[in-house]
Protein 1
Amino acid sequence: MPGRRPVAPVPAPVRHAAVRIIAFFEYAAILAGLLGVAAGYLLSLPGFLHFGVFLIGAGIALGGLESVVTRRMGFRAAADEYEAYAGAPALIAGLMALLAGACAIASAYLLAEGRWQSALARLAVRPGPALIGAGALAGGAGALMMLNPRGRRGLAWTLFVRVPRAVLGALVLAAAAGAVGLGAWEWLDPRAFDRWVDTLPREFDRLMRSITRS
């Protein structure tokens, strides 16, 4: 209309990705723990090393707990990061982080009490808990490989990324299930497990002889 002044366009608001408070504490705990471990090792201060391992485990466990509760990836510096992994991927990653953090905290306790070497010796003789824990972590990794993050679609992505990754994830998941099963068997019936382990060298030799003959 004549005489009407043109309205200037309103600029879009600028979004600033502020660092999330909980992510700050997660990273701060891990960084402080790494510094404590380094100081304890270099300066021969066992207390610093033990507390550093504890802080690392606490930071990892805090990130895992956040992922489990919110169903969104922990350790996000900004609130809108890793949205494609919300839901089941975040839950699985959170459970894995919780397990890893709990193992680190338990290691710090064993180190502080002077029982670390005896615990390792016990696991060398009775590896059931180690097999179960390693199988659980590997199973989580395999499950994450089989899931498709949100927003990723297309024929090329499916053929060249998603399908090979899902196949590899299924293999990892199967191996993880086997490790958990072996760990549970060793835990419940260690004598039968030991007898089976004793037969492995003979079975391996038999397999190698059959391969060389063919």
Protein 2
Amino acid sequence: MIALYHAWERVARSMTRKTGSKDNHMALEAALAGEGITVAPEMDQLRRLINLVKHNSKEKMLQLWEVRKDLFYKDFDPEVHFPDDWSDTVRLNRDQIEVFFAAVLASGPPHAPKA
């Protein structure tokens, strides 16, 4: 999933020339909108998932929990459970993974831009 998001991000940065450290997901989304490309809302959910996996913090887990409780294991409760590995609280099924792939395909050009 990390590679999926980062591949999309790399293409988005190339298309928009948004390569600075302050050019976050929202900046990329706005720049792509300026190019006539609508970014699927699931892309922000995917970004939150990736940040949880990469940074492994309760803060990142809560950011994902806020929008996609269904991505966590059954009966998980962030007010009760305090795992050593926050990313281990995520359980993705095939349908959820397919939604993220579809979001990437819907959120950019049909092919990589020419150099």
